[in-house]
Every structure is written in structure tokens, then in C-alpha cells.
Specification:
Elements lengths: L1 H6 L12 H34 L5 H8 L9 E15 L1 H8 L5 H22 L3 E6 L2 E7 L26 H20 L2 E2 L6 E21 L8 E7 L3
Antiparallel strand pairs: 1-3, 1-5, 2-3, 4-5, 5-6
Length: 239
């Protein structure tokens, strides 16, 4: 038929359309303009996402990455000394059981988690702690021993531990002091935390250790829902 002839037979090369190059040039120009806009938007959004994501990456992991110590084949990514805190909050099981019976339970749970963990993380950061791992409602926090007397901002008047007139304790003792003070403040502010849900309160249990530590990178398996190997980070060392 004429329609079939117009479309061309199988294997037949159609005659060139004189207007095709103009249409293609216009399409490429529009695509390039759109590509620049999309690329700029993506870069901006991606930058904001990455900047926000850094808050969830321990500083010691960021340092290991920039130092080239975070390859998938490397197990020990950091060696150091300092204090290690393990903090666990009991009461979340009772909280989730009660919220599961409410129509807005997910929203209330989100509010409770935000109200509890926001001041907790703020206190850890204020005392220069580095949250290495969340394990449900438990946290592992690293307080590295650092010689602040070698810092350019050290004025030689107030020692690193912050008490005027008291001799410097040294990096390790200062790290332990800092971690202990942080835990005391956390316990004062968040122990028996009132969730506002049927009288449920969160009770804190905190332990502190110190010494030489290693931060290990383990895992490497690819979960079925993604194509990216999953790593876990652990602190090891004699207490």
C-alpha cells in the first residue's frame, strides 16, 4: 500500500529529510540548555544532601577517608587512645508497644526520638565526643585523647581541662575527664526522660572505658536491596 511504501520496506534506507538536521540541531540545543539547568539543580541538591549527611558520619571516619585509610580491603581504619562510652536507653520497647496501638503512633514515635536524641547528640558534640555507632537505642561514643597544648589556639593560661589554676592532666586523663563530664551531664538531663506517652520514661545506663583502641571496618556484603557493600564500624581494645 502507499502507506507502507511511505514508511519504507524492511531494510530500505529512507531518503534524507532536508529539515532533519535543523530539527536535530534545535533538539540538541534545547537538551544542552536543559542539561545545564538539571546539572546545576542536581549539584546544588546533591551538595545539600551530602552536607547534611556528614552529620551522620563519625569524624574519625571522615578523617580516615581523607587520609586514604578507608579502602574496602582495610580492616583497621584508626588507632588511637582515649575514652569510650557506651550508653543504652531502656524503655523504648514499652514505648513502641504502646504507640503501636495508636493511630498516630509513628508520628508520636518520631517526636519522642527527636526530643530525646537531639539534646543527647548536642551534649556529645559539646564535649568533643564522636558518635561511632547507633545500635538501636544504644550509642558507642569515642573521646580521643588529644594534646591541646600543641594547638595554635592554646593560650597557655587555661589548661585543656578548663579549670584555671589546676595543672594540665595530660591528653588521656583529659579525654577521660571530658567523657565522664559528658556522661554526668547526659544523665542529669535525660535520665528518666518523660516521653509523654502513657507515663513511659526512658532510663539511661552508661559505661565508660579508656585505653588504646582500634576502630575496625567489617562486613563488605552486598544487601539484596542495594548494590553497595555494607560496612559496619566497631571499637575494639582492652578496657
Amino acid at each position: 500500500s502507499e502507506g507502507a511504501m511511505a514508511e519504507g520496506l524492511p531494510g530500505q534506507v529512507a531518503e534524507a529529510d532536508p529539515s532533519a538536521p535543523l530539527r536535530e540541531a534545535g533538539r540538541n540545543t534545547a537538551t544542552e540548555r536543559l542539561g545545564d539547568n538539571v546539572r546545576n539543580w542536581f549539584n546544588e541538591q546533591n551538595g545539600q544532601t551530602l552536607q547534611g549527611a556528614l552529620a551522620f558520619v563519625p569524624f574519625v571516619l571522615q578523617a580516615a577517608y581523607f587520609e586514604g585509610n578507608l579502602s574496602e580491603t582495610q580492616t583497621v581504619i584508626h588507632r588511637g587512645t582515649g575514652g569510650v562510652v557506651f550508653s543504652d536507653a531502656s524503655g523504648f520497647t514499652a514505648l513502641t508497644e504502646k504507640l503501636a496501638k495508636k493511630s498516630n503512633g509513628a508520628e508520636l514515635l518520631s517526636q519522642c526520638l527527636t526530643s530525646f536524641f537531639t539534646p543527647l547528640i548536642d551534649l556529645i558534640n559539646a564535649y568533643r565526643g564522636d558518635t561511632i555507632k547507633f545500635s538501636g537505642d544504644a550509642l558507642t561514643i569515642y573521646f580521643p585523647s588529644v594534646d591541646d597544648t600543641k594547638c595554635s589556639t592554646f593560650n597557655g593560661i587555661v589548661p585543656p581541662h578548663g579549670s584555671y589554676g589546676v595543672p594540665d592532666l595530660g591528653p588521656m586523663a583529659t579525654a577521660v575527664l571530658r567523657s565522664s563530664a559528658c556522661c554526668i551531664e547526659i544523665h542529669k538531663r535525660l535520665h528518666m526522660f518523660d516521653t509523654g506517652v502513657d507515663g513511659v520514661r526512658l532510663c539511661l545506663h552508661i559505661g565508660i572505658g579508656c585505653g588504646e583502641i582500634k576502630i575496625l571496618q567489617v562486613g563488605g556484603e552486598v544487601p539484596p536491596e542495594t548494590h553497595v557493600p555494607r560496612m559496619e564500624y566497631l571499637i575494639s581494645g582492652a578496657p
